Each structure stands twice: as structure tokens, then as C-alpha cells.
Amino acid sequence: MTPGELALAAGNYTPVTHFILLGFSNDPDLQKLLFGGFLLIYAMTVVGNLGMMALILTDSHLHSPMYFFLSVLSFLDVCYSSVVTPKLLVDLLASDRSISFKGCVVQMTFFVMHATAESFLLASMAYDRCTAICRPLHYGYVMTRGTCLQLVAASYAFGGANSALESGNVFARPFCGPNQVPHYFCDVIPLLRLACANTAVAGVILYVFSALVLLLPVSLILTSYSLVLLAIGRMRSAAGKEKALSMWAIAIFYNTVIFTHIQPQDPPMIPAAR
To answer: Model pTM greater than 0.85?
Structure first.
């Protein structure tokens, strides 16, 4: 049994009202270095994506489905990083790394929602490029403005549904023992380990739905890639090949997501500050 389960069984516990995010390190010099690095990356991310959105919005030549999806992707990137990074930057300089229970719920909910929405949006972008390359004569008829809006709405719908399920799966369980999270934000797996109740069923639910959320868009992307590769073999124009190569940015992102979040090993535990 975990320490939380022992406390719950003994009836000698106090419900957790806040969590402590242990972060990366307790070394002050390293924390300052990390603060500078993450601040620079975050600033570049926000400025770059907002600049991309402004450029696409103001330039009428970029009002096409591909650039519409890129603008939505930029918006998701800003939201995705803003859910976690500001709190991380504060924690790197502050001695108090606590976050309220409700704050942790909100952070996890929005993090999972935007991460899932981005996953499905990338699948929509792959479908868009596949249609443009494999069915160029029907592209304008298939990828209408209404279709693009529906694909974005569907991405957010999947994100909201998965976020509600995974957050509910975690916070429906009691938290009465240790409140130190060995992570720099309220992620699903580290918090699930702190729950007082048996989390075997919750773990199965988590992995099943996480696999579905990744496998469905990945399957769509791989199918699109296969069709595009076949079309590339029949292409003779350099312009057509350059348009096809734009899809590889999606592959790079998905490789990062898969190797970051779908790992069987437990993340290393970071000792608490003394």
C-alpha cells in the first residue's frame, strides 16, 4: 500500500488542499540558469506564434486552408505553453512552489485539452496536405471554409472530452497523503500516484484512452503519408515535391510527443527540499 492508502485506512489524515511541485532542482544557481533558458524559449514561442497569426490574418494571399490550420496551430502552441510555463518560471525563482488543489485541476484540464486538440489538428493538417497533393482538382471543393472550421471544432471537441475524462479519472480519487509532486506541473501520472485509493483501474483507463488519442490521429497521418509518398513518386514538378515536404514538420512533432508521453518507465523521483 502507498503512504496515502495507509493514512486513509488508518483514518488519520487531512485532505490535501494544495500540492508542491518539486520541479527540476533545488540548486539556486541552476534554477537561475533554467529560468533564463525557459524564459527565452517561452518568449520566442509566444512572439513567433503571435507573429505567425498576425501575418496570416493580415495577408490575403495566405487565406487558404493550409495557412488557416497553421494559424490555429500557432494559437494552440501559445495556449499549450502558457498553461505550464508561467507557473514554472515563478517556481524557479520562488521558495514556495505550492499550487492550490483547484489550480492543479485547472492546469491539468487545460493542458490535456490543448495537447489533445493539437494532436487531432495535426491529423487535420495531414489530411489537408494529402488532399492538396493527391486530389488537386477536387481540393477547393473538399477543403471549404466550413470543412476547415468543422475539423478545428472536432479537434477541440476531442480535446475537451479527453480532458474531462482524464482529469475526472484523477481527481475523483481522494488525496490525503503526500502532496509533493515529482514534476514541474500537474501532470496526470505523477498525481495519480499520490492518490490514496487503489489506482490500478484508473491506470488502465488512462493508458487505454491515451493510446486511443494518439493512435487515431497517428493512423490518419500515416495513411496520408502513404498516399502522399505514392503521389510523390508520380510527380515531376519541383513545386509539387516542395509542397509534399511541408508535411514532415508534423512527423517531427509526433515523434517528440510519442517518445515524451508514451513511456513505460516511471519518471525519476526528485527529492524534496530539506
So the answer is: no
What's the CA gap between 113 and 224, in Å, rounded?
Answer: 24
Instruction: List beta partners, residue 19.
Output: 99
- Please check whether residue 56 is in contact with residue 68, taking contact to mean a CB–CB distance below 8 angstroms: yes
**Residue 221's closest CA among 141, 90, 137, 130?**
130
d(CA 171, CA 165): 10
Go through the domains of the chain in sequence order and give each one's CATH number: 16-22+97-261 (1.20.1070.10)
Nearest to 121 by CA among 75, 72, 48: 72
Query: Element (H or E) spanning 111, and its range?
Result: helix 101-134
Does 262 or 157 have the greater pLDDT score?
157
C-alpha cell of residue 235: 510527380
Please give the helix or strand (H or E) that residue 77 lies within, else none: helix 65-93
Question: Tell me, what's the pLDDT at 164?
Answer: 92
Tell me which residue of 191, 192, 210, 190 sits closest to 261, measured CA to CA.
Answer: 210
Give the per-residue pLDDT at 271.
Answer: 37
The single residue listed with the C-alpha cell 507573429 is 51
pLDDT tens across 77-96, in order?
A: 999 899 999 999 999 988 88
pLDDT score of 254: 54
The pLDDT assigned to 55 comes to: 92
